[in-house]
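Box 3.1. Reading complex inputs
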Amino acid sequence: MMCADVQQQLVHFADGELEPARAREIERHLAQCAKCRALLGALGRADGALRALAREEPPAEATQAVRGALCDVLEHEQPPAARREIMTLDEVAGYLRIPIEDIIESMGDLPTFELAGHVRVRRTRLLEWIEERERAHVGSIAESDLARILSGGLLPRRIVAGRG
Amino acid sequence: MAVSDDELMRRYVEGDEAAFHMLFDRYRALVYNFARYMLNDPFRAEDILQDTFLSVARSAPRYRPEGRFRTWLLRIVRNRCLNLLEADRARRAATIRERPEFPAIETSPGRRIEAAERMAAVREALSRLPERQREALVLYGFDSMSYDEIAGVLDVPINTVKTIIHRGRAALARAIQDKEPDAP
């Protein structure tokens, strides 16, 4: 086989796509031809470099800028039908109908997490947290407060139903 | 097992902001590199990265979960890049200019090129390839992307994709070999 023939089929050879007889011919040529052997090695290194290129991370500042822009969009342009699972502290305050200052004071207790540098609360986790706290104290809630809580859909009904 | 892209999109549409950030983390490198090598411009690739994910967030309610999120995402990237390249061509028709993004590297004679130099050689070689070959090769470099999926992104038959990629890989191999002066 001539070098030109081998080099034309080298990618197929490297990928194992050739018929066994043809692959053996190329193997025999490679055993004798340092130039084609070197090209096969270069092909392997090119593939490795391509894989590395595809994994290169964007610059950290660019990633941070995109996250910031995303946070704006995700907060202010959320699809109207969406029921927000991730809440800002303002939304938690509105949801619980208490001042934001009280929320900030309770930060140590609240199940918060950080998302792109912002403090957030997951709705399902917040409801669990409320349930844990209220289970112990539900008996002492005044009727007027209970009505307010229920109207806000805050307290799970099964807890209220179990109240004596 | 990792949560599927479609599931993350569903969670986002239902209000889970964190799900969208997971999608961003999963695909930011792919989107950035695909745009970077399509445009031969790392700075404009950053703009594409932002535009693409903002566009995906805004159009999420219209997304149809058919297990092809990555293809859909990359088509958005590609369309944006093609629009920019088209605008470039129109500008170049008026003012001819050259702007090499990946300057040629010098290798010391008598030694094999090191990994960083090899990467530079591949970048340079990529920047010289035809547009279609370049975009196909970057997608090929991304783990687990099949010929079928690449064909879906580029909107060409699968055999065409195979041919483009085979030729591109051979061209890159020759470029690397040329940078290794002690090679036979």
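In summary: Chain A has a mean pLDDT of 79.
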